[in-house]
Every structure is written in structure tokens, then in C-alpha cells.
Amino acid sequence: MLRSSHRAEPRVRRPHRAGRSRGLIAAAALVAGAVVPIAVLHGGGTAQAAGNSGDVTANLFMWNWTSVASECTSVLGPKGYGSVLVSPPQDSIRLSGAHPWWEVYQPVGYDLNSRMGTEAQFKSMVASCHAAGVKVYSDAVINHMSGNDQTSTDSYGGDSFNAGSKSYGQVPYGAGDFHGYPANCPNSNLAINDWNSQQQVQECDLSNLNDLYTETDGVRGKIAGFLNKLIGYGVDGFRVDSAKHINQADMADIESRLNDTQWGGRPYVLQEVYPGSGGNLAPAAFESNGSVIGFDFAYAVKSAFQGNIAGLKNLASSGGLQPADKDGVMVTNHDTERDNSTLNYKNGTQYTLATEFMLAYGYGAPSVFSGYAFNGHDDSPPADANGFVTATDCSSGSWICTDRVQGIANLVGWHNAAQGKQVANWWDNGSSAIAFSRGSAAWIAINNGGSALTQTFTTGLPAGAYCDVVHATPDSSGACSGSSTVTVGSSGTATVTVPAGDSVALYGAGTSTPPTTPPTTPPTTPPTTPPTTPPAGSVTETFHETETAPAGQKVYLVGSPTALAGWNTSNAVPLSSTDGTHWTAAVDLPASTSFEYKYIVKDAAGDVTWEPTGNHTAATGSSAGTLSDVWGQQSASGSGDNQVAVTFHEAKAVPAGQAVYVVGSIPTLADWNTQSAIALTSPDHTNWSGTVNLPPNTSFEYKYILKDAGGNVTWESGANRTAGSGASGTTLTDTWK
To answer: What is the pLDDT of residue 535?
Structure first.
């Protein structure tokens, strides 16, 4: 929304309205911070197979197009950002002298020559971001044109217009394309006098801006044509500026005219709807047309980080937020940072920690805001004498590149790894410090206090050494500097010191550190032939591992039982192979016993490469069993007593060239990773089935998806399904929803 010196919409915080609709698209049950599958949050239910799978947006406010392209390539893509939001790209009014930022929110034409660059540069930027795996969302100013109180007839793209006569030649629009008095707005000066009147809010002029007559077919068609032009250049979605001031039926009609995006699926729509009004003007009333900007989340986070962050524990279940599948959460944006209604870069560590919390908590679709330094409300971004925005220089102090801050940028990967996992293992000190995990995938501690905190935390992570990604960026093997390494013990606990105004964050595969010196005595030589029967109280467990080892290297097995070398790689169990890819070994282990294990590769010099996952977990039964694994995939499926068969049946008529898959919340069901989803088979393309071996008595969530030949994914609707494997397995019979 425009934030000029004109009278702006008041923001009155009101209690959350109970009983609201949860929207048309629900992808996951939101319980204590569970996240929603990304394909549903962004893209209308179809995964963007060509792009990053993440749902985090980098909001690069007022960055010019060449700078956005560079950021996509060098930062956003590599760090796992799923999308970038860019400022309004259409031509806009240009004032003489100073060039306030809000010029770009006063459009005068729908061509793409603007303060941020030319149409060709915009098109090139979108292509560069797509090449980096980053979707592009455009801020869309479609409620109004320029202000009727502005005398300038100059624009950045050279379009001809006259705001006073409501003439915009490039579109073209004339006086009949705008709301007027008394036919639409009841006030002769066209001002909004009653912010609770839907007619005035949606048919009068917001801050003297010429309000488009969106009820008419001609205006709807021209707006849709503009947005389709952007989609044709590769734009994947829109932030709809001043969406509260567009009647919901008008917006629905405009959306119905939009094309699918280049990467497949419907354009993502994020609507600016300030809270403070009820009924048809409340944010919930706009959810049928898309998501809404998370002012609610930003206000709650500011209150907590300037007070008591322990209260954030129940944020997701408190009833004070929009539904997660409709909430475009943020810590700040270009409007709220200027009126101090939310945190901003001037709040220092509170701002950084709040952004890290947003990424870690996993509610809604988060947006990380990067703008520029300002003193006055209307200050221009760094620009030349003609108002054209100059290149972003993050080292200059003039630009605030929050998306690059190490802890925040690395938390994007943390956030992506935790997708589908619920908030667990919550800890707080009642005031300024909190810690929590996302299932067993990731853990964070945040200290908003004025002194360092040392505490033994339950992390929920498998045992191992982890890189603190707030203070170091792991290398390709997951290793980082010693001072930034945190060791998680076998019980999942870690003693961590969190500095004042700082955080510690762990995720990924913990690596067990090999001994620095060899054993003082050589290992006992194994028998040349295996015993004909296992020792009393033992069972034979056969391990199969798929890994193509380089020439001169072999795969070994190491784990927590003594028979698996007690994690001592010097005594690791060698596996045999006839082709260098499929490896096997049979080991006698204690019966009916849980254990952990991993595979390693050794070269001729004895140098060790660890499998890049967390520890595998399994349990022997009362008789022989088999475990089959693939290098780097944290799952164990076998036929022994430690696994049970779960059969999935799904009824869904599917066109030729598509197939049904199942994916879920545990490693054996791909941890929500659609690329590794379990394929089901069907004799008639209508009745699909498949059997997966899972740990017994294990609860899990799951959903069915469709994949086409190009790998594009469509999720079934509704909340995640829930089930348990039982003591002896189970059969699940479902129908696509």
C-alpha cells in the first residue's frame, strides 16, 4: 500500500475473529508449528519442479533488476530461497527534485520501463532467477493509478498521462474507467471517511489515488492483460497492493483470466489486507482469492521480542493468526518498518533473531525483507539524479541486505530441511530465551537476553557432531570450524552456550568424529569362515547397501553395538561386492535389541568417508533379518522382525503419463521429499497400491501426490493423513481428496 504524506489507512488491532474459514487449500494440520507442504502454499497446488523446493521469499524492496538477477544467482538460489519478490515493475509518476520510494506505487502505464530498469532488463532478471531455481513474484499495483493531487506529468518510462483528467494513454484508461461521485463513492471529495464501510473502502480514492472501476469488464481485462504479460515473461505470482480496496468478486474475476505460469500451476497470490476492520473487510474475507500478508505474525513477533519470547510457544495455536496455508508471514515490510509498527533493521539483534525465529518456527510462508537505510519516511533508495535506482552494494551501509546475513541465509536451508516436522522439545526460561526442535530434523536456541546462556538442551537430534549454521557455513561434507561445532550425545542432549542477543542452530546429518589415533592394540582377527549358527541370544542380520564406490575403495559398516565396532572405524565391518555397487555383509547381533549404524567408504590408505546422513536406526527381532539401504538415504527397509509391512491402496483415476505416489513424515516415506516419493502401481490407472516396510508401532503422516512425465507434482487436497504401522503391519485404503 502507498505510504506517502497522504492520509493513510489507520491500523487498529482487533481480536482474532473466531470461526473463520480455513480457506480453500489446506495442506497440513497446523499443530504447534507444523508446516504446510510448499507446493500448496506457493503455486496453487502444483509443485514447481524446475525451481527450489523452498517456500521462503526474499523481498528485495526497490532493488534494480540487474541487482535482483545477481542476488538470485549468487545468494538466493544457492541458499535455498524459493522465490524473490520484486517491487512494482510498471511505469510510474516521477516527481521533480526528490524521488520518494512511493512513486512506484503511483502507476501511469502498464509498460515495464521503471525506476528499477527497462523491460528488457526485467525479462532478463526473471530468466536469471529461474536459472538459479528461484521463482519471481511481482508487486502488482492494480487498485489505482497515480494521485489526482499530483501535478507532475513526467514518468520514468515516458508515458503520457494526466492524473487530473484521469487520462492514461499507454493503457489506455479514461475518466469512465475510475470510480466517481456519486455513482460509486458517496463522498463528493472521493475520500474514505468510514474505514468500516465496504463501499467507501473499495469504491472511494485511497489517499487521493485515482481508484479503478474494477467492476467493469474493460478494466478487469486490462488488468488481467498486464498481469498475463508478466506471467508470459516468467513471473510466478503477485503481491497484490491495496487488495483490501478491491472488491473480492472483482479480484476473483481478474484471477480467473490469468494464465498458468511457465513452471506450471496457478500464479501465487499474496494480498495486502491490513487488519482493523471486520466483516467483508477483515483479512479472512479475502482468503478465497489467495493468501494474505501476515501483519498478524509481525505484530506478535515484535511484541514478544520487545517483551517475553517465552510466550511464542503457543503462537501457532493461540488463535491470533490467519490460517497457516493463507498467512504470508513476515517480520517487517516497506510500510511497517517506516511507521515502527513492526521490528526493523534499526532494532539490531531483535530484528535478526525475530527473522531467524520466523524461519525456524515454520508457520505460513515466510518472507525475509531486504531494503535500504532511511532516516525520513519518504526517503528515496540510492538513485541517480533522475531517480533511477542504482546497483545494490551490500557493503556500503546504504542497503540493508538481510537476506545475506549468515544466520538468516543459513536458516533458509534449516527451514527447508525441517519442512513437514512439528515443533517439539520446547524449552524456555520463562522470559528471554527459548529453544525447540522441528521433529528430529533441526534444532535452534534463541537468546534475546543481555547475558550468555549455558544450558543442557534436549535437541531431538540423532547423536553426532553438528555445525552451528548461525556462526559458520558448513562445507560440502557438513564440516565447519571447531568453535562452531556442537556435539549431540546418544540421548539427544547437548550442552550449549548461546551468547547474548544471539542464537545457535543445528540441522542435517550429525557426523560421528573418527578417533584421532588408532587403537593401542590391533583388533581381533575375525574367523575365516562364519559359524554355522549364531551365538546364543543372537540373530544374523544381513545388510545390503547400494553405493558405487570409486576404484580402490570399499564400503564398510560401523555402528553402536560391539559387533559393529562401537563406531570405531578402524574395526568397521567390511562388506563384499561383485560389481562395486551392491554391497553385503551378515553380522551376528543381540536379539530383540535396538541399534544405530552407518556406512563408510575406506580407501587403500585407510582414509574414511562417512555416509552423509544421520545415523540409521533399526532393531533386531527374535530371528534373522535383512536391512536394505541406499547410500545417503536415511532409511532402513527390510524383512526382519524390526520392520513391518504397510500397504497403501489409493483410488484415483489418472490420465496416461501420470502416476500416483505416496510421501510422508518419516524417512522411509521420503520425509515429504516428492523427488523420493514411493511409486504406487496400478493395473487400470484407477486403483493404485504399494507396500513399504516401516518400523513397527510408529505413527506417521502421509499424503498422495500425482507426478507427470516431467516430474511436476500435484498434491491431494486437505490435511495430512495420519496412521500407525502397528505391531505387525497394516493396510491403508484411501480415496484421493
So the answer is: 55
Domains and CATH numbers, the chain: 55-171+213-417 (3.20.20.80), 424-507 (2.60.40.1180), 538-636 (2.60.40.10), 644-735 (2.60.40.10)
In single-letter form, the type of residue at position 724 comes to: G
Q: Please give the single-letter amino acid code of residue 477.
A: S
User: Which residue of the set 203, 241, 250, 611 is catalytic?
Assistant: 241
Distance between CA atoms of 630 and 636, rounded to whole angstroms? 9
> Which of the residues 55, 71, 177, 272 is marked catalytic?
272
Is the omega angle on the peptide bond into residue 590 within 30 degrees of 0, that is, cis? no
Burial (CB < 10 A; 0-12, 13-18, 19+), residue 699, is exposed
Rounded to whole angstroms, what are the CA distances from 680 to 465, 650, 654, 658?
37, 9, 12, 11
4, amino acid identity = S
Alpha carbon distance 347, 640 (integer Å): 57
Report which of 321, 265, 264 is spatially closest to residue 291, judged by C-alpha positions. Answer: 321
CA 503 vs CA 383, 443, 446, 452, 469: distances in Å: 36, 11, 4, 10, 10
Residue 602 in contact with residue 553, Cβ under 8 Å? yes
Determine the 3-state secondary structure of 558 from DSSP: strand
Closest CA to 365 of 404, 412, 402, 403: 412
DSSP result, 617-680: EEE--SS-EEEEEETT----EESSTT-EEEEEEEE----TTEEEEEEESSGGGGGG-GGGPEEP
Q: Which of 296, 266, 250 is nearest to 25 (CA)?
A: 266
Q: What is the dihedral of CA 12, 13, 19, 22, to 10 degrees?
A: 100
Predicted pLDDT at 634: 56
User: Which three cell numbers mark 509?
Assistant: 546429518
Backbone φ and ψ of 659, nearest 5° = -150, 160
The reply to whether 203 belongs to the active site is: no
Max CA distance (Å), the chain: 99
Q: 205: which DSSP letter?
A: B
Q: Give the Cβ contact number of residue 730 at 10 Å.
A: 15
177 is catalytic: no
Extract the C-alpha cell encoding 674: 516428492
Kindly list the averaged pLDDT for each block of 10 residues, start to end, along the chain of length 737: 40 29 27 29 36 88 98 96 98 95 98 98 97 97 97 96 97 98 97 97 98 98 98 98 98 98 93 94 97 97 97 90 96 97 97 98 97 97 97 96 97 95 95 96 97 94 93 80 84 94 90 37 33 63 84 88 87 88 88 85 81 78 78 52 80 89 84 82 89 82 86 85 88 93
